[in-house]
Design brief:
The structure holds two protein chains of two kinds. By secondary structure, chain A is mostly beta strands. Helix content of chain A is about 0%, strand content about 50%. Chain B is an all-beta fold. The chains are: A mainly beta, B mainly beta.
Chain lengths: ~110, ~110
């Protein structure tokens, strides 16, 4: 089945220690998104790629970076995680002609 | 700008009860409307969608009708099950290179046996 895969599902990192979350897709979609979701809240868009074109949301902290080496993979790098960065991180994809987004299962990040 | 407002939760129902979760939106033009469901510890799953006025989206017994005159997209199900317990998000989107989704705040549904 075509899908969006996120690894790992659970990640524990130390305060200030860089961490990378990964997302891969077999849908061959042009657009990939990264969201941050905190408890009982709606997902908050951090940035997205339209093919290799990177688009940052205005309020995304500089601490968050992203890479998309090819169509299938996208990475979220948190350079110096703080306690406030503990959250669920969701990856989503969308084909260019469509409007709905397809979400992965998420990575739950804990910062100790 | 675009916005989506959902009824506040949690909503607690007994099994086989009728469900309505209200969703209203503010937007110019003709956006598409979606309902996503999130089960505990999981990502969001697309439940249903409608792309133009008077469209009815339906899936797994859930329905929602795109009402432009009332700017609403209320989610309904005739008989809920315990397995429907989840958080439901109403969202608005536009077909564009960006394709951003504007989410409502989410409504938690708890169904008791």
């Amino acid at each position: 089945d075509a899908m969006v895969i996120q690894n790992p599902r659970y990640q524990v990192t130390q305060f200030g220690k860089p961490v990378t979350l990964s997302c891969s897709q077999t849908l061959n979609h042009n657009v990939m998104y990264w969201y941050q979701q905190k408890s009982s809240q709606a997902p908050k868009l951090l940035f997205h790629y339209y093919d290799k074109d990177f688009n940052n949301e205005a309020d995304t902290p500089d601490n968050f970076q992203s890479r998309r080496p090819n169509t299938s993979f996208c990475f979220l790098d948190i350079r110096s995680p703080g306690l406030g960065d503990a959250a669920m991180y969701l990856c989503a994809t969308r084909r260019l002609a469509g409007e709905e987004q397809y979400f992965g299962p998420g990575t739950r990040l804990t910062v100790t | 700008g675009d916005s989506v407002t959902q009824m506040e939760g949690p909503v607690t129902l007994s099994e086989e009860a009728f469900l309505t979760i209200n969703c209203t939106y503010t937007a110019t033009g003709y956006p598409s409307l979606f309902w996503y469901v999130q089960y505990p510890g999981e990502g969001l799953q697309l439940l249903l969608k409608a792309t133009k006025a008077d469209d009815k989206g339906s899936n797994k017994g859930f329905e929602a009708t795109y009402r432009k005159e009332t700017t609403s997209f209320h989610l309904e199900k005739g008989s809920v099950q315990v397995s429907d317990s989840a958080v439901y998000f109403c969202a608005l989107g536009r077909g564009s290179n960006t394709g951003k989704l504007i989410f409502g705040q989410g409504t938690t549904l708890q169904v008791k046996p």
